[in-house]
Amino acid sequence: MVPPFAAEDRNAYLERVGVALDDFLRGEHADPMTRRDQWTGALERPLPDEGIGGKGVIDELVRDVVPNGGRFNEPGFWEWITTAPTAVAVAASLAATVASPQRYTLTAFNYLEELSLEWLAQLCGLGSSMKGVYSSGGSVANLVALGAARQWALEQRGIDSAAEGLGATRAAIYASAESHHTIMRSAGVLGLGRRSVRLIPSDEQQRLNPVALARALEVDKGQGVVPLAVVATAGTTNTGAIDPLRECGEVARRYGAWFHVDGAYGLLGILDDRVRPLYDGLELADSVIVDPHKWLGAPTGIAATFVRDRSILHRAFTQEPADYLEGSFSDPANARSSLESMGIPYADFGVELSSPARGVIVWSILRELGRSGVTRRIQRDNDFARQLAEAVRSNDRLELLSEPVLSICCFRYRRDGIVDLDSLNKQVHRRLLRETPYLPSTTVVNGSFGLRPCFINPRTSSEHVDGLADAVVRLGDELTSS
Questions:
Q1: HSE-up of 184 (CA within 13 Å, CB side)?
Q2: pTM for this prediction
Q3: If we measure between CA atoms, which residue out of 199, 197, 196 comes closest to residue 178?
Q4: 69 compared with 104, residue with greater pLDDT
Q5: Distance CA 404, CA 225 (A)
Q6: 303-307 and 410-413 as β-strands: parallel, antiparallel, unpaired?
Q7: Which site from 86, 223, 388, 413 is most exposed, i.e. has the minimal number of CB atoms within 10 Å?
Q8: pLDDT digit string (tens) for 7-47?
Q9: Are 66 and 24 in contact (CB under 8 A)?
Q10: Cα–Cα distance for residue pair 112/99, rounded to 1 Å
Q11: What is the C-alpha separation between 420 and 41, in angstroms, rounded?
């Protein structure tokens, strides 16, 4: 029989898991696929009739699960725009999990939800009127922003889309062909349809073309299509390009469209004085998103959506009051118990009712680093991309595919006489993942397949950056020689 939970077990369990995590973070484990049969054999079993108790679970966790985790913590992990969280963020996340499993009621955690949003808005150069809500990532953050855009645009035409639906209204969203594909999914989920997204051509620097944008809006205007939103990206996932925000915002204003800036990855780049001018026009945005689980090093599952008027979010996402929930609360100004109010009603500002307290994690990071610490991190990572670009330019075996704007550098191996460079670089990439500590992703830039490291990993050093360039040359030479 499984013994009842004992409070003192918690510290013992956490201590054992902490030791296992410290060992894991030393990076001495090979890729988990090298011993897949071992850990799948240990874990694959039918649903047990009898439990093994907490100690047994911890034994299996530290023996079979933790050592076979992902490689996100390694200094050379530059594949996705996420990274293993920093120590303070992990501690804050654990504190929230135990002490505030929901972000609601009149607690310090609910207070930090709003305070951290205010700090984040200030850090990113947003005006004091921009109010936010956290969600699970850029996908949902964009959905929330475009839900607000739908609500606002159709309210201008006398339609409450959240309450009444779209009816026969035809509407469109305008975004660069380099925009994140979650824009398409948002359109589908919001009932607009993915085909309502007009993908506007980008220029040679992968930026949205304002002339082509205005042309598309003008064509739709003649056909009676409602211009729902213009989406500009501040730091594309592919190359880190920043769309011309002011020109895009002015086009949106001219046609009466909501202006949304997707800064999930790159909005924090505004802290680097070298690229700050590229954010000119950000003040025109009606909504902006940024993901703390990217460049800030928070645990995965934290994004923020900011809008000028949060009441629009309430109209777009309210679930309507329920007697068992809202009926249980009273005026927070007169509360004497934390359970007399939900606090700020974030549940009506997005798509989540149940939600963890994410604000304490963002607060912990900003409290630890301050504006200057975050700025140094952004500048350092942008420096890494420029360092790699210089190494590429100085080696005739390498070719730069796009000039770094933020912390992404796209390049490839090349050699005279090799016709199929795309296939060759795919092989180089596979060998990088299997044989080296350097873990970039790949992409296509102006029709050319190449390697795409994104430097947001706080564990990376300049030696790792040089090591990547050297490894690509070495592997490319081996492949072409053979």
A1: 10
A2: 0.92
A3: 199
A4: 69
A5: 37
A6: unpaired
A7: 223
A8: 568 888 988 998 999 888 887 778 888 889 999 999 999 98
A9: yes
A10: 13
A11: 41
Separation CA 332–CA 344 (nearest Å): 10
pLDDT at 263: 96
Whole-number Å distance between alpha carbons of 243 and 228 = 19
Per-residue pLDDT at 1 exceeds 50: no
pLDDT at 296 over 70: yes
Q: Which H or E run contains 228?
A: strand 226-233
Helix (H) or strand (E) holding 231: strand 226-233
The DSSP call for residue 367 is H
Q: What is the identity of the amino acid at 203?
A: D
Q: Is 143 helix (H, G, I), strand (E, B) or coil?
A: helix
Quick check: 358 and 136 in contact, CB under 8 A? no
CB atoms within 10 A of CB 108: 14
Residue in this structure with the two tokens 């380099």, named with its chain if needed:
178
The span from the CA of 189 to the CA of 308, in Å, is: 23
d(CA 132, CA 302): 12
Distance CA 348, CA 422 (A): 48
Q: What mean pLDDT is predicted for residues 144-163? A: 91
* Helices H / strands E in the chain, number of each: 14, 12
Distance (Å, whole) CA 246 – CA 281: 4
The single-letter code of the amino acid at 432 is L
